[in-house]
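Re: folding output
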Amino acid sequence: MNKSQDESQDICQLQGVIRSSPSVGVEGVSLVVRIKLALKRRLTVTAQRRIKDAINKALGLIDSVRGRAKKRAAVPDFRVAWRLEAGDLVRVRSREEILSTLDHWRSLKGCAFLDEMAVYCGTTQRVLKRVERFIDERDYRAKKAGGIVLLEGAICSGTGETGRCDRSCFFFWRQEWLDQLGGPEAAGN
């Protein structure tokens, strides 16, 4: 069975949707955020990472000179400590505990903690699955991931930064932000 040229070029359903959909303006978002989003759309992921790393170093240096250096919490190495599996029960750490692990970009090892995720802090959740590969929508490439899980029912309904969105994507959770309570058998499964 031969695929048409258009079908073979679509790696992901999202690419076709993006090509066929007009852009919608972001209402109620500040000019600074609009500029930030415009730059993000035009820079490669590698260029963004290099810029963030340079800014992180500069901000860290400024903070240390001012005497306001943020001491980041010790983050366990998930590869050595433990590995979450689908069905495991976890407690999401408190917002303060999670914020203490973040850099100037509110991320840990590249995974951002969004304000919308704070409602899950302190709650007990069940792991839906581990994320080992995902499509990065910024450059439409499959990326490898480690130490990231999806939690059942912990979905995004749009962010304060970009406004309303109807996709209902799962939040990515770093294992370092979670405390393991037990496996599926601990919940009576």
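--- second protein (sequence, then structure) ---
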Amino acid sequence: MLNAADLVAQIRSDLDPLKEKIRDHPYLSALEAGQVQRDALRAVAGHQHHIITSDLRSIALLVSRHGALPSRAFLVKTLAE
């Protein structure tokens, strides 16, 4: 059975192909080439802002709920990576 650190490492490794797909997405090439209209870029930035602020709230709730457990050190270390 995997311990928590090994599980996180395995999940990260499993996600490597997805990260490559994202890095190679045509949108990024179009953005670098200046082919994305400002309105479209604003929309993407707005969506990302919403997602990130929501994720930050979720992480804060997670830490507040589990802050007193022995797993807190692992949780904080993992979130910092």
